User: Fold these one by one.
Assistant:
Number 1:
Amino acid sequence: MPGSVQSIERAAAVLRLLAAAPNGLGVADLGNALGLAKTTVHGILKTLHQVGFVEQDRSGAHYRLSDAFGRLGETYLDPNELRSRAINWADSLASRSGEVVRVGRLVEGKVVVVHHVFRPDDSDQDLDVGTTLPPHACALGKAVLAFDASGAARPRKLDAYTTRTITDPARLAEELTAVRAKGWAGEFEEHTVELAGIAAPIRGLGGLVVGAVGLTGQIERICDSRLRHRTDLVTMVRATAEAIGRDLREDR
């Protein structure tokens, strides 16, 4: 059997992002969300416009789904599939890092934990599968929010959980821009005092971010002596996210 066609995967990802943005999105917005060059995105949009799937607004700067195509706002990835693809990789990350590992996805403005690996020691720990986390206050959430082109998943009210929680929308926007540039997100006592975390986005078909994987632990274990997130842990987390995403993409 022939392999999948990358251009079609990317076009499908563009359509899903447009479906979640009723006011439309620009070429730059789509490029940032999918990690694609503007020229590539423009070529996809031009083709989709020619076949009648998308239309431009009066200014010509934004695109949206046409009425003929309908809306595709619902997520395409079943949480059980994300969990099943992540299990082995997340377990390996916990074993190598010695820290708690979680896989999460955004649902109605909250991060839902779909998989949780205990820290590999003898301490008492509670299972977090099914629990929710505030996306603006945790690395898992920021890793996904950064690639939400429409901004629809971003919480309207940024509640404070510690003195370090980001509660200013402008500051959160700056943080998410930095996440896109780095390819990973960090947290430092933003949800729980004395805990830090690292997370990276999981990309499915077409580069669409479908969730994130990350680890959390005591600051002295996650950060170096200058309170910077340890580069070796960042590398581990990013490699794990890519491995999970690769499994999701290759089995389609």
Note: The longest helix spans residues 231-250.
Number 2:
Amino acid sequence: MFTGIVEELGEITAVENLDDASRFRVRGPVVTDGAKHGDSIAVNGVCLTVVEHEGDEFTADVMAETLNRSSLGALAAGSRVNLERPTAVGDRLGGHIVQGHVDGTGEIVERKPSENWEIVKVSLPADLSRYVVEKGSITVDGVSLTVVDAGPDYFTISLIPTTLALTTLGIKQPGDPVNLEVDIIAKYVERMLGDRAHPAVGAQEATK
């Protein structure tokens, strides 16, 4: 589990395209400190497993399902990425509960800078809009953020200087893809309310 508080802005140093997957080599001195084979690291909000670790770099295999569902397939050597290690039991939950399981992708639609922050508009897939509410939480490229405004096919977020300086959201431009993970609590609530509305279906699934 992650919290959406990015630890460092890393870099893709190599991408090896395989038959049905890709192998990424990622540089991140902070997240590789003490890393070992089998550890999890979130890359732009996608939970990946460390295959190898050498110096300040690690490699991770990305399956076709992940490449198709997320924006990782658009990454190349030199791409900057948000990196976060899983939260440890007993640590502060600085953002919100983030699984590292991307629900879909959006695009940066518009950026409106101001003196102390920047409002960014992001497109929202239709099947995710019901999970996004004003003042709710959403993860964008692995960054835990608060929704400012939620529309039927978009939402806006307000980015402070720290977020702009230390994450990819400071360099993404209109048209660039971003990974989206909605609040898991919203999905659980929907499922529970659905089972209550259709108790026979819920009972049947419970016996499978």
Note: The longest strand covers residues 8-17.
Number 3:
Amino acid sequence: MTPEERRAELAESLAEVRERLAKACRAAGRSPEEVELLAVTKTFPASDVALLSDLGLSAFAENREQEARGKVAEFAELRPEAASRWHMVGQLQRNKARAVARWADVVESVDSERLAEALARAAANALDAGERERPLDVLVQVSLDGTTGRGGAAPEDVHRLAEMIARRSDLRLRGVMAVAPLGGDPVVAFTTLSSISERLRVDHPEAVEVSAGMSGDLESAVAHGSTRVRVGTALLGGRRLTSP
């Protein structure tokens, strides 16, 4: 596929996703401006990110630090003047915190105090070294299925984790993130997340972001207050294979 053909393909997919978002917002009585479209570019090349940037997107997400590091750098070379904001959305090991703090604007998958501490130290070091210009924005990932296998803090632990994050000057608490349980009812999941978000904002009014909804369930997420949907397949197509 030529770059021109790929651009046309991405433009068509982007138009379809934006129309879905617009319809979902109308159905929920919300403005489309209230919901950010985050392009999940994992396994896809930096050239696709560049094309999406040309089409007007500026928020991109990765779930593996090693892949993201090179992609962020390559994108910066391809589009040096482009505005971009990079999100880490995958499960993150503490030993990757320093590397992530060098390229990520947002980490959405903070699910433990130990990870938050590691990210706070990493962000502080990156700020001191001139590798970043501002504190690291973070979201608390919430587990909605009673397990931690896919990442996420238990709902009853969210407040304590948020309090710890809010005390760190090198981190900025922005809200919550969750993935609907496999095989579960997304309506139930996103209703639960909305309730958790409302309770969190009582003590942390700055934590307004709700990252929820993906290619298959974004309509339900928007209906239940999502402020950011994370879309990969519907935008970029089937996942490509990458080396480990």
Note: The mean pLDDT is 95.
